[in-house]
Amino acid sequence: QSVLTQPPSVSGAPGQRVTISCTGSSSNIGADYDVHWYQQLPGKAPKLLMYGNSNRASGVPTRFSGSKSGTSASLAITGLQPEDEADYYCQSYDSSLSPWDVVFGGGTKLTVL
Amino acid sequence: QVQLQESGPGLVKPSETLSLTCTVSGGSISGYYWGWIRQPPGKGLESIAYIYYTGRDTNYNPSLKSRVIISVDTSKNQFSLKLSSVTAADTAVYYCARRLHGSGGDFDPWGQGTLVTVSS
User: Which residues are CB-neighbours of B56 under 8 A, at least 6 positions away?
Assistant: First the structure.
């Protein structure tokens, strides 16, 4: 069971807006630690999508955006494209595991209808 | 740009030690942290360990700490993972990745991954 909770799946039609949530607690996201997001296309390695909550990694389209509030973070994709169909993972720091600091969400499969 | 490539046996017998190496090309291993992350078939990501290029700063996932050793060889621009006493539960795709910051930092870029199967 992951420290960070993500919905197992989300879906949307091309052109629509979808959001993926990453829910944590007071020892991770709620303690104002950064959240990072990764995109994993089918059969490929994960790729950094967003870092530091809301910063797009190099080459990432502007239709991807990230935000954080309280004990949750969200990844939003506007103008959904077929090539966005992938698994998405959030990552953050959890002080309750110190000195270990890497926690991932369980992942969300995005289906483009 | 920096590229990472994992290498090592694709099949390891139960109770033996899994050994993987990550070769960094297109840039220096110096100045960064380097880590290993794995993904069992059909499952999510699990971070295993990471190390600073000097080798002096290492950090291990508590759930694996007793079986893992991570090391770095700056002369070869490589870092390595050893996981002992493996079982079928250790079957996974193993990725290596760069980490800009130690605590709380993201992983970027990643290697393509290598599938390691634990089976007799």
Answer: none
